[in-house]
Amino acid sequence: MLERKQLKGRTKVTFILPDDVPDGPVSVVGDFNHWNPAAHPLTPRGDGTRAATVALPAHTAHSFRYLAAGDYWFDDEAADSHDGTNSRLHT
Hints:
Layout: E1 2-7, E2 10-18, E3 26-30, E4 43-44, E5 49-57, E6 61-68, E7 72-74, E8 81-82, E9 87-90
Antiparallel strand pairs: 1-2, 2-5, 3-6, 4-5, 6-7, 6-9, 8-9
InterPro entries: Ig-like_fold, Ig_E-set
Protein name: Isoamylase early set domain-containing protein
Organism: Streptomyces katrae
């Protein structure tokens, strides 16, 4: 799931997954962090989910995926679109 908060000239995007699906550590990776799995690991929240927040320029589009333990890559079903390989989001 994606949550967005508009700021002046930027959009804060929060990437949210259930705390246990998939099991183990998960990171959001994309063109906004040079596909670096260490840049935005999802951290547990008190509501049974885990999340990572990224501030991106407004009115831009980005490719991203999630990377879980065991080199398991997966998309976000709630993404704005998919390009055949990646999830896409529009700020």
